[in-house]
Amino acid sequence: MYRQKMQRHLLLWTLLFLSLGLNAQNVKFTANAPAAVAKGDQFRLVYTLKGGEGSNINAPSSIKGFDILYGPAISTSSSTQIINGNVTTDSSESYIYTLNANSEGTFTIPAASITVNGKSYTSNSVQVKVLPPDKNAQAQQSGNGGGGQTSAATSTAQNINSTDAFIRAIVSKSKVSEQESFVVTFRFYTTLEVRDIGKIEFPEFDGFMVEEQPLTPTRQMVFEHYNGRNYYAVDLRRTLLFPQRSGKITIPSGKIEMVFNVKSGKTVQTFFGPQYVMTDVKKTMTTSPLTIDVSPLPEGKPANFSNGVGTFSMTPSISATDIKANDPVTIKLVISGTGNMKLIKTPELELPKDFESYDPKITNDLKYTDNGLTGTKTIEYLFIPRYQGTFKIPPLTLSYFDIKTRSYKTISTPEYTLNVAKDPNAGSNSATSFTQSDVQVEQDIRHIKTGQPALVSVDSFVFGSLSYWLWYIIPSLLFIIFFILYRKQIQENADIARMKTKRANKVAIKRLKLAGKYLQAHKKEQFYEEVLRAAWGYLSDKLVIPVAELSRDNIEQELIRFGASEELIAKFISILDTCEFARYAPVESDTAMDDLYKDAVDAIGEMENSRIKK
Predict the structure, then answer these.
(1) For residue 537, which phi and psi values (nearest 5 degrees)?
(2) β-strand pairing of 42-50 with 28-32
(3) I want to staple 377 with a disulfide (CB 3.0 to 4.6 A). Which of 310, 335, 399, 568 is the partner?
């Protein structure tokens, strides 16, 4: 008796846990169908109910673009798990309809509804694209609920037909402007069974800044109609390109190796009759080269053009305008929009004299889109006013080419007024402690010495003595020597061009040594940045032109005016271009970086050895 009571109690507790598990489940009612089918194909539309027992399913009786051949066929399944005393129960019901696609186009299958425990639940709707029939395929109906792939199956081990499997390079635009983005997609098409993927060689994109679109590693093949046939297709790579120069630029061929399962040409006799023997065959497929027509940006480019191409807006802010001397101030600039965001030059902030400034901090928050990089580029300018007064911060301007209106636009920040009070913690409380600002603003004569003078009695007369004459001769000689040396120093310092030219090589060599250390450490960004600084700094000192006034547009004219050869000019332009865009291009090899370093050293050495005078 006791054992029977225990069994009944155990059964009751089990049923209780089961009922709790059932009640705890969320009821879900979903519809599922293939995303694409061919006209004339049959496929399955499946409504799935999870978490309850359904009744009174209300599915559409007619669906535009399809014939309902059969349904619903009902299938049920359930499972129970007890893990660490926790009971979970999964149950599902499937309502299966067989449909036939009778028209080409994209159609929406309406939602269905079902009742569970007196409550109505509605499924999602499903969109199905009906492709034209395959002109070369042997129609075969699919009974497994898939899209009904059809294939001519003409390929054999001796000859895989190029129309049965291939790879395409697809561009979103073939005619663009400089810096205008476009997408190149490498898409694989097949009607054959793929067993394995071998080596993939994508082409190099010389002349472009490259941004790769991240693709999910578990992406599925989709049904697609191309050139009269239906294929299963999948994107292997999607790349966003920004052309860096005008003219016709060619994208070379790409290659991919695939292993297909095809007919070997042999048959074997089986119980069901003769059957083809299948075998694995490796095939290398290539894309056709593509030519992109890149037009230059129109005339009328603003002098302060930021290199931006796209659609942008700018939101400025300042941390404070009423401050004390030696307090830090931050101007924050948020550039938003879509385009070549990474290549936009940082607007230059002009600060009053005696302000201590730091390099701007740049933060990119960008996402990949087919129209370019979209998001924000945040620039923070940090500076410290050292003296009291009222100062004006000129507006920051951003000039760019608007891709929508095909015109140049300039946006700017407001002018900021800084009211800087005296720093109460500067200096000491003594009467002799003054700042530079105090001297300049308040007065220029200070501290008349007061008190009793110290008198010295003269006991002897030294006029005419040796000491008397030495007091005149020695200072006079020292004055003459000092005057000669001082005049020579003034003449040398007055020749600014000579001084800058004299130091140009030393500064460049110092920076190139640092770049060489970055090269050995394989630090790509620091290497290119240091080489770029060395090149711009050397040209600025050698040509006696401030760096701010040098640009890629005028550097060639300045070098011609200096007397440099065309080969040397081309070498400097190539070094500047390579460094400017290398930080955003794919990772360069050590050989390429080493070659650039040698070119920079050779170019500066050739400039130094030249006897041509400006």
Answers:
(1) -65, -40
(2) antiparallel
(3) 335
**Residue at which a domain ends, from 391, 421, 451:** 421
Distance of alpha carbon 394 from alpha carbon 392, whole angstroms: 6
Residues 169 and 287 in one domain: yes
Tokens of 404: 């929508």
Is there a domain that residue 127 lies in? yes
**Is 6 in a helix, a strand, or coil?**
helix
Q: Are residues 99 and 192 in the same domain?
A: no
| 84-100 burial: b if 16+ Cβ within 10 Å, else e | eeebebebebbbbbbbb
Q: Is residue 173 domain-shared with residue 81, that is, in the same domain? A: no
Query: Could you tell me if residue 111 is inside a domain?
Result: yes
Contact 238, 183 (CB under 8 A): yes
Beta strand pairing call for 255-270 and 193-201? antiparallel
Could you tell me which of 61, 72, 145, 148 has the C-alpha nearest to residue 110? 61
Residue 454 within any structural domain of the chain: no
Q: Which residue has the tokens 């007196």?
A: 118
pLDDT digits (tens, 9 = 90+) for 192-211: 888 888 888 888 888 899 99
Of 421, 441, 476, the residue at which a domain comes to its end is 421
Domain carrying residue 212: 165-295
pTM: 0.57
Q: What 3-state DSSP class applies to 596?
A: helix
With left for phi above 0 and alpha for psi between -120 and 50, is residue 55 left, alpha or beta?
beta
> What is the per-residue pLDDT across 401-457, written as a single tens digit (0 to 9) for each?
999 999 999 999 999 999 999 988 865 443 333 444 444 444 444 545 555 666 555
The CA distance from 239 to 592, in Å, is 23
